[in-house]
Amino acid sequence: MTDTLTLSDVGFHFGDQDAPVKLTVFTNLACPHCANFFAENETDLFAAIDKKQVELILKPFDKPKEGLLKGNLVHLFLNYKDQEKMNKVILQLFKDQADWKKLSDNEIKTYLTENYGLSIQPDNTDYSLTIAGEAIHFDATSVPTVLLSRDGQTPQKITKDELKKELEAAIPVK
C-alpha cells in the first residue's frame, strides 16, 4: 500500500472498467448482511452495471469473527484469474448462503468442488492480505463496507441511503 488513498485491482469486477462510478464492496461470503446487500440492490445495481454507469468490485474480506469463518474458507477457493465464472459463483453462493453455512468445513470444501469445480487457490493468501490492508486503510471495519469513487476520485465510504440515491441517479426512472 502507498500513502495515497487508492485501491488495487484485486477483487471481482462486474461491469465496464471505464464506468464513471466505481463501487467497491468489502464483503464476506458468509455474512448475512452482505447477502442482504445484494438481495436489496441487485436489480438497480445490475441495471446500472448494464448501462455502463457503474463498475462493481467485490473484495472478499477475511475477518476473524466466528460467524464469518466459513466465508474465509470459501474465499480460499475463489479463482481471481477466472472472473467471469467466479462472478456467477459468488452471486449464487450469496443466494444459497443459508444452505452451505450449515455444512462443516470439510463438507463446504466438498460442496465447492462438486458443485462449482473449485479448488483451493495458492495465490489467495496474498490477495487476502492485500484486501485486508486496503480495508484497514479505508477503515472498513465491518462487512459490507461500500466505497464509492466517481471519475477516478479518492474512494469514500457511503451509507445504504447514499448508495440508493447513487443507483437511482445512474438509472433514471422512466
Automatic annotation (TrEMBL):
Residues spanning the membrane: none
Pfam families named in the record: Thioredoxin_4
Record domain Thioredoxin-like fold: where: 11-167
Xref: SUPFAM superfamilies: Thioredoxin-like
Protein's name according to its UniProt entry: Thioredoxin domain-containing protein
Protein's organism: Sporolactobacillus kofuensis
Biological classification of the source: Bacteria, Bacillati, Bacillota, Bacilli, Bacillales
Coiled coil: none
Gene3D superfamilies linked: DsbA-like domain, Glutaredoxin
